[in-house]
Fold this sequence. Notes:
This protein is mainly alpha-helical. It is 85% helix and 0% strand.
Amino acid sequence: AGIDAFQRGAWGDARAQFDRSLSIDPRNAETLRWQRQVEDTVARKFEEFLSKAVGLERESKLGEARKAYLSAQAVKPDNQRVQAALSDVTARITAQVAERRDKAQGLFKERKFAEAKAALLALARDFGADPQADALLEQIEAFVDADRQFKELAVQYGNRNFTGAKQLADRIWAVRPDFPGLAELKKRIDEDFNRDNREEELAKRFQD
């Protein structure tokens, strides 16, 4: 089990397995050899991950640096240097994510949709998923898509498909209530939709 864990890169599990075996047979040469190999590998991997993390942090690649620190922590969970560095990098990432997200929000308010979207995609690339940034990106895409939906709305209304037109109008209204011409058209659609429903209800009553 210890050898299998070592080959999978689960060095903590491997160490625990070999320690358990040595508690039963402290002089087993094969187990001692594997234990030394585990310790040597852990030391080498830790230094490798730590060096990579420090280098990335110096290059201000904080998202990648955090991943490298996490890899180092997985090898040596109790190392205080890594714990401190990881805490610091995480705090800096949180601050940068908030700053860049606010900048994208500002671009969105200025109707600079392409720039706002690019800023959010860059944020995700640098730091990974952020729920608030993801929600803002969805809002931007819905806002931009309102132009296409409004054209489809005009077609649906022209074809007297009041149900489809009302659904589109409500969808656009939810994200862009100030869309040019939407308020007036939505009012007409609602009137036609309600009139159609009343006529349909009356027809059903006569049939009954």
